[in-house]
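Inputs:
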Amino acid sequence: MRSQIEGSRAVAEAVALCRPQVIPAYPISPQTHIVEALSERVASGALHPCVFINAESEFGAMSLAIGACATGGRSYTATASQGLLFMAEALYNAAGLGLPIVMTVANRAIGAPINIWNDHSDAMSQRDSGWVQLYAESNQEAVDLHVLAFRLAEELSLPVMVCMDGFVLTHAVEPVDLPDQAGVDAFLPPFRPRQVLDPVAPVSIGAMVGPEAFTEVRYLAHVRQLEVLDRLPDLAGELAALTGRRISAVTPYRCDDADTVVVALGSVLGTLKDTVDELRDEGLPVGVVGVTAFRPFPVRAVAAALAGARRVVVLERALAAGVGGIVTADVRAARPGVACRTVVAGLGGRPVTRASLRAMLLDAVADRLEPLTFLDLNREVVDRELARAAATRRSGPAAENILHDLAGGGR
Amino acid sequence: MFAVRIHGRGGQGVVTAAELLSVAAFTEGRHAQAFPSFGSERTGAPVVAFCRIDTRPIRTREPIAIADCVIVQDPTLLRHVDVLAGLRPAGSVLVNWAGPVDQLELPPGAVAVAATQLALRHVGRPVPNAALLGGFAALTGQVRLESVLDAIRGRFPASLAAANVAAAQEAYDLVRAECEERQDA
């Protein structure tokens, strides 16, 4: 049914349709309305049978999800930002054990300095944790991805992270079409675990593996991740039969004869497409490639989507200090030899505007774009802080100095 | 695309107002997107929410810089916040104000409705949202009053909804009368 609904609430509905049996979550900031809505459903009996566990931390929540999943329960949780970092050790364990947990990450920045707003720093920090990572462009896509995620996770016995931009998507109210229960039930059969901890047939999982076999275990994990790319089109096709909407690992937009193509993940794709439409109307051959599956990285699909491009711009919502782009490295590997620029945009909740994207694309088309660009960087403020730091060793904390500057102070 | 920016203070319900407006447009078969200005809102601090209405799917996610209409829930904001920033030259302004609108420093087309007073009378609490949305329907014609009332009914329990519906209805009538009067003048 189509309704006008907040992103978090829509995802909660979608997760409920997937009949999770255990939802451990840590209900404090950074958290979303998703687990709040699910806890209400469990408490009212609307979601049954399901246990909601108020965990003592995100580390506890993921550890509980691991235990629940290992004993055969369909397990789900959600977190963001610092909460995801606090889960880090358990995330690697979930992936290493091949446990098909599904988790929403409502993407937010990571401190210090404290920042509660949206970017991709959190999920990007866990890109090598062994979890599948799927990024949603809209709340509709977030809903569809969650339904897909459970099926994908359980078929391949891999945990899946559905990443949706915090606030920008989670707090946006827009039309979302939710599939019906019968349709989801037909698409997503009951969880049949590949491995299960059962007192009747006891086994141990996660045992010590030494140098004699660790490489092989890791290799197999890699192979299993890559299977996602083979399986995704079929599952997406089955889901499309239910929803009428098809999810792809990679989605090109107006890339035919585009000599400049921007690659991006997440909700910025919407604004980017509007910008590209505008520039296309003016005769500029520009296009967009949306990457939905970031882990595993769809090398061949990205290469195919960028086959005709002479210039590639990777719009990044996170920064690897000391290098620049994160997604850029993978795009470059997929399309070696093509001029590839990195644009870091929208860090810590800075809005990515059509005006800035337009100016950036005009620079790109004219070959004026630096290898690494920070969109809308306030150069003046940065230079003042650099000058302070050069003048005296004890120049004060940079973040506080800059805030003082912006408030018209000057130090 | 019709872009609305709602200015208020934390606790006055700008987010709910934007959401209700989007629901009203949605029930009329249009596309709508409502979202707050993100932050750690504190009660009483200036806050903003946005609503876009279009006949086509809305993809952009940027905050509304160019507005077709600005709704001001709290007139004391006018001293601190540039609520008119980016308002189109022919854009509409609806302000929650019990006095004559020319007492405020607003463009000549601005319309005032005593939303807080209407809320106190009908709802018993100073919640200006419903009245302002009724006023918005009359001022801009972007949504029908009935759609606004349906959105209110869908959001609140029956008796609270009825009180808010009455406030919205009265605000709609007042603003419509005001607009007609201005047209005749």
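Chain B touches chain A at residues 15, 18-19, 22-23, 26-27, 31-36, 38-40, 58-63, 65 (CB under 8 Å). Flag for discussion at group meeting.
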